[in-house]
Specification:
Blueprint lengths: L1 H14 L2 H24 L5 E5 L7 H5 L4 E6 L2 H10 L4 E4 L12 E7 L10 H11 E12 L3 E5 L9 E5 L2 H11 L2 E10 L2 E9 L2
Parallel strand pairs: 1-2, 1-4, 2-3, 4-5
Antiparallel strand pairs: 5-9, 6-7, 8-9
Length: 205
C-alpha cells in the first residue's frame, strides 16, 4: 500500500498548480454549491477539517473566512502552495488514514475527490474514524465512487504524471455509512467526462 501512496504523493507534488488550473472551470460551479451547503449547515466559528485540501483553492480559502479550518494533504508541494494561498488557514502534511483526533472534535469534515486515492481496503477504517471525530449533529461531505474501480492512469493532466484511484460503488458506500450510523441527507451522481462520482452529504445523529 505504501507504493500507491507514494505514487499519489509524487503525482500531486509534480503537478503543483496545474491540478487546479486543469479542473478549475469544470468543477467551479459544483464547489460553489457544496461550499454554500457547508456555510448554511454549520455555525461560524466551529472547527472544520478537510481531508485532501490540495492547494487550498477554493475550499480552504472560502471556509477559513468563517471557521477554524484545518487542511490535510499527503503532498508537501500542495501544502506549501495552500499555505501561500490561504495564510489564515492551518495545514498539515499527512496520510489521512493515519490521522488521530479525539472523539467529537469537528463540526464538519470534508473530503472532495480525496478518499478515493486511498486503497479501498483502508477506506472503511477511515470512515469509522471520521464518524468518531464528528460532533453530534456534525456534517460529513464527500465525493466518492459511483462504480467500483481500482487502477492507475498514465500522463494524468501532465506528461509523466501517474495517478492511482480505488473506490467502491455508490451502494457499497451507502451501506457502510448506514452501518456506521450516519444519516444520509443527500446523494447524487456527479458527472466527469464520460464517467463520474457520487456526492454524499451525511450527518452524525
Amino acid at each position: 500500500m505504501k507504493d500507491v501512496k507514494l505514487l499519489v504523493k509524487s503525482g500531486y507534488d509534480n503537478l503543483g498548480n496545474q491540478y487546479r488550473e486543469h479542473f478549475e472551470k469544470e468543477k467551479n460551479i459544483h464547489y460553489q454549491k457544496w461550499l454554500g451547503i457547508i456555510k448554511n449547515s454549520i455555525q461560524p466559528g466551529n472547527r472544520i477539517i478537510e481531508l485532501g485540501c490540495a492547494d487550498g483553492i477554493p475550499t480552504a480559502k472560502f471556509l477559513s473566512q468563517y471557521y477554524q479550518y484545518l487542511g490535510i494533504d499527503i503532498s508537501s508541494k500542495q501544502i506549501e502552495i495552500a499555505k501561500n494561498n490561504v495564510p489564515n488557514g492551518d495545514f498539515m502534511e499527512a496520510d489521512m488514514s493515519n490521522l488521530e483526533f479525539p472523539n467529537n472534535e469537528f463540526s464538519g469534515i470534508i473530503a472532495l475527490y480525496s478518499i478515493i486515492h486511498l486503497p479501498i481496503s483502508e477506506q472503511p477504517n477511515l470512515l469509522r474514524s471520521i464518524y468518531s471525530w464528528l460532533k453530534p449533529q456534525g456534517i460529513f461531505m464527500s465525493i466518492l465512487g459511483a462504480e467500483s474501480w481500482t487502477g492507475t492512469e498514465e500522463d494524468w493532466i501532465k506528461p509523466g504524471v501517474k495517478m492511482y484511484w480505488s473506490h467502491a460503488d455508490a451502494s457499497t458506500y451507502k451501506n457502510w455509512f448506514n452501518e456506521l450510523g450516519f444519516i444520509l441527507l443527500e446523494s447524487y451522481f456527479v458527472p466527469e467526462g464520460n464517467l463520474g462520482h457520487t456526492f454524499f452529504l451525511l450527518k452524525k445523529p
